[in-house]
Amino acid sequence: MNTSQGIEKVCPRCGAPFICHHENPAICQCAGITLNKNARAYLRTHYRDCLCRACLLEVAREMQ
Ligand SMILES: [Zn+2]
Ligand SMILES: [Zn+2]
C-alpha cells in the first residue's frame, strides 16, 4: 500500500483541490499550521475534513 502520495480532496470551504496526507500526520498540511484551541474547535464544528492550506491559514488568523 502506498501511503506517501496523500489523498486528493476538495476543500469544503473554498472548493480548491488539495492533497491531504492524513494517513501520515507528520506531513499532513494541517499539522504544519499552528491552530489554537478556538481554530481547532471551529474546524471540528463546521467541517468533517481538513481544509486546503490557504483556508487553514485564514482560519488560524481569524481565530487568533
Ligand atoms: Zn480552501
Ligand atoms: Zn489533512
Describe the structure.
The chain is α+β, with helices and mostly antiparallel strands and 64 residues long. The protein has one domain (7-62). The protein is built from 2 helices and 2 strands. It has helices spanning 37-46, 53-62; strands spanning 7-10, 17-20. It has a two-stranded antiparallel sheet. The mean pLDDT is 85. One zinc ion (ZN) binds next to loops.
Helix fraction by DSSP (H/I, runs of at least 4): 25-40%
Rg is 12 Å
Overall 3D form? globular
Distance, first to last CA: 39 Å
Content of β-strand? 5-15%
Helix-and-strand structural type = alpha+beta
The pLDDT mean sits at: 85
* Total domain modules: 1
Low-pLDDT parts are: none
The major β-sheet equals: 2 strands, antiparallel
Strand order of the largest sheet: 1-2
Say how many strands there are. Answer: 2
> Which ligands accompany this protein?
zinc ion
Order of helices and strands: EEHH
| Number of helices, where a helix is a run of at least 4 consecutive DSSP H or I residues | 2
